[in-house]
Each structure stands twice: as structure tokens, then as C-alpha cells.
Automatic annotation (TrEMBL):
Keywords of this entry: Hydrolase, Metal-binding
Organism this protein belongs to: Spirosoma fluviale
Protein family according to the UniProt entry: Belongs to the metallo-dependent hydrolases superfamily. TatD-type hydrolase family.
InterPro entries reported for this sequence: Metal_Hydrolase, TatD-like, TatD/YcfH-like
Highest taxon, organism lineage: Bacteria
Binding locations of a divalent metal cation 2: H130, H160
Residues annotated as binding a divalent metal cation 1: H7, H9, E94, D209
Cellular component terms (Gene Ontology): cytosol
GO molecular function terms listed in the Swiss-Prot or TrEMBL record: DNA nuclease activity; hydrolase activity, acting on ester bonds; metal ion binding
Any Pfam family the entry gives: TatD_DNase
Name by which UniProt lists this protein: TatD DNase family protein
Amino acid sequence: MILIDTHAHIYDSQFDEDRESMLHQAEKEQISQIWMPNCARETIPGMMALAEQYPDRCLPMMGLHPAYVNETVDEELAAVEDALNRNAFMAVGEIGLDFYWDMTYVEQQFAAFETQLRWAAEQQLPVSMHTRSGHDRNAFAEAADLIEKLALPGLTGIFHCFVGTLDEANRAVDLGFKLGIGGVATFKNGGLDKVLPHIGLEHLVLETDAPYLAPVPHRGKRNEPAYIRLVAQRVADLKQISIDDVARHTTANALSLLPALYANLLPG
């Protein structure tokens, strides 16, 4: 059984004391790849160090996280563009909209999001999207509206940490995107028990968002890629299928998103 963690911040300082053992534990749990979303300029060096040390296991993305959009947005985007032009990345991410903490730079968030969506389409890279609602605004709906409006040819990717309704899940699928399912699926009131039984397995990928959103029974503690098996088991339980089926399909779904330059990581 091979699993892929499609979203984990394993360069985070929370792993500084035991990063090697964390990665070893992930390998023991048969996690073949860990996809690393970037946040801002400050996270690039640590992420790239891991990508260089483990080129077949730790795959880097490049993007500006919406929660890091502020008065330095132009400099941050310039750094992202420069990196995309200099290095190979498996996706543009983590990008999107975040209305939860602060609405000061929402206009700049939209501009940064659109810019990065266009870069992804131009470079034929998938995107990893963050959509966190707040202040009576639905980030998923507004992100989906922008994607529909832009209608960029070939744009695809993952709605990371999907926690929406069945209607929103179907809308994401109709737009050509996968749903990133993580620890929230194991939460008692997470809401995905009303969604996942009705969404085809071909539309799902698994993620941890480590070190955040640890699944039950580790909720509230540091998350790590090895815990993705708990997410896979929850999906299996909700869909009344085997965990092996979940692993096989979600891994294939993830691999289908990899750009051509990662063809060496594909089976066969």
C-alpha cells in the first residue's frame, strides 16, 4: 500500500528537533512522496534544502500563501516568479484566499491569486489552493468564481483542506480539481461524513497539512505525514471500502497531477 501526502509543511520549525525520524516514520508507513507547499520568501530555503536532500520523496511547490500577503506583496510575488523561472517545481502553491484572520489585504490577495493562477496555466503546473472563509465571506465560492471567470486552459490542481458542502465538492470537481482530504475528515463535527460518501474516489487525494490539523486521536498535537494512514482509514470507513482501495486510487489521482518533468516518479 503506497500513500502520497499531497500537502505538508515539513520544513516548519516544529520539525527541527526530529525531522529525520519523522521522515523515517513516514517511510515506514509507506508514504512514497510528500508534497511541500511554499508560504513566502522566508520558507523557500528550508523547503528547497529538503527537496535537494530527498529529490524523489519531498517535492516542492512554489507560491505565496494568502495569509502572507501584506504590504510586501510585490516583492514576495517577484521572488515566487524568479523561483519558478529558475527551478523545477511540481505545482504552484500554496495560493488562494484567506478571510479568517485579517481582511486588510483582501484586494491584494485576489490580485496575487490571479497572478499565480496565470503563472500555473502558463507553465502547465497544477495549483494547490487554500480557501479559508471568515468575516461572513466564503473563500471557496469566491475562489471558484475567479477560476470560472478566468477560464484558463488546462488549469487543474487541488482544493487543499477541503471542508465544504456536497454542492461545493461537486463544483470543485466540475472545475476539474481534486479535493484534498485531511485530518478534518476524522473530526466528529468536521462535516465531511455528509460529503465523502457521495463523491467518487477518483476525485480525492490525501493530505496532512502537517504540522497542523492532526487527525483523531492526535487532534490538537503536532501533525506529521505518517498520520495520513488515519485519514485514509476514515475515508475507507465512510465509503465502506478497503483502505487498500483508498490508497490505490488516491495515489493514482495524485500522480496524475504531476507535471511531465516528474515523469521519472511515475510507475512503469
